[in-house]
């Protein structure tokens, strides 16, 4: 994935129910900054016509890998695209010495939770996810 993919990637993400985006982190500037810090760990899937049908945003902090947004256009789901994107990201993170990957899925996103469980990502019941915005952020939940 490159910053030039931004519009098509956001269109893919917002076409999928259960995604959670926001106006700061997921802005063109926010995604560009993220990809500059993590240039080798995020991927897109394009069809034969060059249309982006799937995307995964992932990176690491040197200690843990983080998967933020993974989506496949609804009409192309259940064809192995999501699994291929995840495998590419896991391979890229492993090549950078990362041995553990984490992600967050909304509790109400049944399809997303089933997808990640099928790929071997365990749910942790012993953690409480917390965050704090340091500026005004508008959430965009699909």
What tags apply to this protein structure?
alpha+beta; four-stranded mixed sheet; two-stranded antiparallel ribbon; 6 strands; globular
Terminal CA distance reads 22 Å
Helix content: 25-40%
Derived structural class: alpha+beta
Q: H/E order of the elements?
A: HEHEEEHEHE
Q: Gyration radius, to the nearest Å? A: 15 Å
Strand arrangement, major sheet: 2-3-4-5
> What profile does the largest beta sheet have?
4 strands, mixed
Work out the helix count: 4
Beta percentage is 15-25%
- Give the low-pLDDT segments: none
Question: How would you sum up this structure, described in words?
Answer:
By secondary structure, this protein is α+β, with helices and mostly antiparallel strands. The chain has four helices and six strands, in the order αβαβββαβαβ. The protein has helices at 6-14, 28-37, 81-95, 110-118, and strands at residues 20-22, 43-46, 52-60, 65-72, 101-103, 139-141. It has a four-stranded mixed sheet with strand order 2-3-4-5, sandwiched between helices. A two-stranded antiparallel sheet has the order 1-6. Strand 4, helix 3 (81-95) and strand 5 (101-103) form a beta-alpha-beta unit. It starts with 5 loop residues before the first helix and ends with a strand.
């Amino acid at each position: 994935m490159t910053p030039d993919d931004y519009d098509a990637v956001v269109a893919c993400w917002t076409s999928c129910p259960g995604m959670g985006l926001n106006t700061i982190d997921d802005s063109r500037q926010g995604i560009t900054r993220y990809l500059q810090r993590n240039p080798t760990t995020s991927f897109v899937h394009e069809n034969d016509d060059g249309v982006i049908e799937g995307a995964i945003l992932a990176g690491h902090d040197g200690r843990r890998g983080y998967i933020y947004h993974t989506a496949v256009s609804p009409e192309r789901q259940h064809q192995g695209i999501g699994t291929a994107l995840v495998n590419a990201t896991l391979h890229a993170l492993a090549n950078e010495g990362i041995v553990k990957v984490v992600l967050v899925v909304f509790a109400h996103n049944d399809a997303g939770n089933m997808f990640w469980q099928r790929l071997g990502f365990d749910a942790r019941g012993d953690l409480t996810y917390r965050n704090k915005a340091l500026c005004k952020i508008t959430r965009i939940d699909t």
